[in-house]
Every structure is written in C-alpha cells, then in structure tokens.
Amino acid sequence: MDRRRALAQAAHVPPAPAVPPTTSAASLAHWSEAGRRGMEAFYALATEDYRQLAAARDWAATLRDLAAGRDRVTLLDVACGSGKFPTALLATGVADLAGELVVATDLLDPSRFSLDEARGTLAPPFVHTGDHECTLQDLDVRDGGWDLVWSTHGLYALAPDEVAAGMARFVDAIAPGGLGVVAQATRASHYLVVDEAFRRSFNPEGRRVPYTSAEQVVAALADLPVEGDEQLLTYRTSVARDDRATAEGFLQRCVFDDSVPLTDMEADPVLGAYLQSCVEGDRWVFDHRVSLVTVRRTAASA
Known about the structure:
The protein is 40% helix and 24% strand. It is built from 12 helices and 8 strands.
C-alpha cells in the first residue's frame, strides 16, 4: 500500500472513544482557569462549609496556644484549593491577631492554579512562606514540620490505596507539640452521596473511584501514633430550583464532571432520585455531616 492510500485510510479511522478520567485527574482538571465558572457556582453554596468550620472552634485561641509565647506559628494548608478556609477565618477573631502573631503559611496542592488562587487570598496574620506543588503523599516533609497542619474538605480525591500513605505523611508533617486538623464529609453527607449516585450511572469504565470519606481518614489515623478527638458538624445548603445555572454548576463541581447537564442528572434513575429527595418546596436542600478531626502526635512519636 502506497503512503498516500495509507494516509487516506488512516484519516477515516474513527477516533477512539474518550476514556473517562480518574477521580484525581478529574478533580485536578477542574482546578484551572477553564473551570472558574463551575468553581464560582460551587462556592455559591460551598462557602458555607468553611463558615461552619470557622465557627466550630476558637481558632484565634488555638493559634495563640500553638505560639506558646512566640510571635510566629507555622502552618501547612494541605490541598489548599482556592483559600476559602483562611478567608473564612479572617471574618472571625483570627483577623485580630494581625500585629500580634504571624501565621507563616505554606500551601500544598497538586494544582498550580490552586496555589496561585489561595496565595492571593492570604492577609495578616496569614503570611505566605512557600508552595508545595504536589500531592500530600508526595510531600517532602521539612525538618521540624509545621506547628499546625490542616486539610479542610481537601482529601476527597485521595485514592483509596493512598489514604494510609497520605495520612502517614500528614502526621509526619506535624511538629512536636503541634496540631493536625482534618475536616472531611462522612459517607452520609451530600458530597459522598451525590458522588456515589453519579458514579453508578456515569462511570462506565469504572475509572472513577469513590471519594475518600471521613470514616476512612479516621481509620487511617487510628493506625498512626496520634491522639485526638472528633467533632461532628451538621448543616444544610440550598439553591433555588429555578436557579438552574447555579444548581448545575454546583452539582457538576461536586462530581468534577461538567459534561453531564442538569437535565441528564434529573432524568437518570439513580442520580435523579437522589436529587428529587433533596427537593423542599422551591429549593434543592443538601444535608452535610462533616467530621472535624483534631490530632496530636503522641509523646513517643514526637
């Protein structure tokens, strides 16, 4: 076969079907400038996640305790996203720490877009001191670690076979005498429930694995040299049913897939049934159950 015939025939070969991305790849693809519209729709509701966390404890007192008389505390923000948690804290008494205490903040995220977004939100007492463009499990822990290590709604795309390694690295990053904090939705919470419903109908290749739950995080921490406690936060977010653009953007961002329109979600037997169960009058109402886990390294491991 001559080259021209071969090229002509190759031009008519149908393209291979698109392979659905893995959960982590789908998540990473949405943390980008191209995903900004969906991100803004998502945070029309999800900002409440961070407001609830900011109100759950006296964070200014926590930071003062960690400072132990010093004027500086080091923080590692794991899976920093777009910096919504520090922003929420700045609307509380934490802002009053400016001038008294510097929270030297390192940001960790595999997305350069997220690192840039989060850095732009920081204001005193939060002072940017470094970026770590990597996953948690690939973090190169610096000598001495950080006084405070937190991850707030940031570990959902951590693959099931990476949870143990990720949480081990999380604990390694906590400085002696320091504190680790994880906020993660439970299996009964909207983010996990909608992900499960979505994957049942729109995951034909089986590449999307379930989101990591608070239960998995707690189980992984139980195998590590830490002690701590767990607080359950329950609250609701909602969106008007006639605000379909926001509802669609929010739900697409919940599952990191903007290829499935809201009409298809509603028509699907599994996902549609879940969405119908969330209807209250003229709104969709989503229930959240979030574990706020606090840990310290045991004396033997510090």
